[in-house]
Amino acid sequence: MRHITGYIDLLNRRFPDALPENGKHYLENISKSAIQMGILIDDLLQLSRTGRQEIQMEKLNMNLLIQDVIKVINFENKERKIEWKVSTVPDVWGDTNLLKLVWINLLSNAAKFTRNKELAKIEIGYYTENKDYIFYVQDNGAGFDMKYSQKLFGVFQRLHSTADYEGTGVGLANVQRIIIRHGGRTWANAEIEKGATFYFALPINKKSIV
After folding, report:
1. Which of 14, 76, 173, 179 shows its CA 20 to 30 Å from the CA of 154?
2. How many domains does the chain have?
3. Does 64 share its domain with 11?
4. Cβ neighbours of residue 36 closer than 8 Å, sequence gap 6 or more
């Protein structure tokens, strides 16, 4: 993929007047496709790694993980108005790097699918149910049709057009794989154009984790 985009860049820089406009348009489409394929390959490699790497269990501060991710998202979206409502959440047992990846995927998605809102609202919280902590990320974004909800956490399954929202359809599959490896589960609720809420459960007791 790097070779393809590299040679296209060389063509555009060294022979800027040699191609007609439609030829330049074709090269631009090839370059965009190659970049997208490179992103997809990276995502698939990440998915593969999360399924194979050994989990390093420790008691970790989820609040710090959340704040770290929010700082990055705010930096990447300086021009936007994003209202964060973040509750204090409990510490959990888990792998710091893997669970941070969960928050990166969920909060990045919330930011992405609210970008057409004048004021994006993203809420993060939790509640306790039986022997689990239930964490959730709620937004006021594009939402989705619940009749397709079973596709959400599958690889390459997308509920929105790539023309409207970029992505590879791998991120939520990664989230589910990580949470399952921690002995938990994932699910979501939504309504079209009224936002979505993504949930994941983690065992309160370290001994419950697989």
Report:
1. 76
2. 2
3. no
4. 162, 168
Domain match, 65 and 40 both: no
Give residue 42's domain range.
2-52
35 contacts 1 by C-beta, under 8 angstroms: yes
Confidence (pTM): 0.74
Secondary structure of residue 135 in the 3-state scheme: strand
Domain end, chosen from 10, 35, 52, is at: 52
Length of the chain: 210
Q: Domain check: are 100 and 199 in the same one?
A: yes
